[in-house]
Amino acid sequence: MKPLIKQQENGVNIGEAARESGVTAKMIRYYESVGLLAPKGRTESGYRVYGAQEVHSLRFIRQARRLGFLVDDIRRLLALWHDRSRASAEVKSIALEHVAELDQRIAELSQMRDTLAHLASHCQGNDRPDCPIIERLAATTTPDCHEPGHAH
């Protein structure tokens, strides 16, 4: 295991940046690979060095991920964050697009939950092999359980 570099005037190593930001070192490398964080220079001994601004950006990314933003949206939000001449309308637009996507996912999850609960309520749960859950999973088509005329 490589020894940790203590915080220096020019920054911290990836492990310390991870601790300070709450983002794992693996995710920091990933964020660099997808362009959310600029690739870092290295010390003579080969360590990446991160400054306060990069650690702050990592915290920003972590918060955006907690809210479910995708990488492309985070990239846009980071650019707007760094642009002091930004219009807040752009930020709001990104947020509202994400809210709409979340609403869609919530509706899909709710429908999945309702379908599974419906199937489970019609399963006897006994020693017999008949089971509407298995029958639905094995079906070649997937009708909505709540469609009129659907056999329960």
TrEMBL record:
UniProt KW Flavoprotein keyword: no
Family matches, as Pfam families: MerR (PF00376), MerR-DNA-bind (PF09278)
SUPFAM superfamilies: Putative DNA-binding domain (SSF46955)
Intracellular or extracellular location(s): Cytoplasm
HTH merR-type domain sequence ranges: 14-80
Cytoplasm among keywords: yes
Full protein name: HTH-type transcriptional regulator HmrR
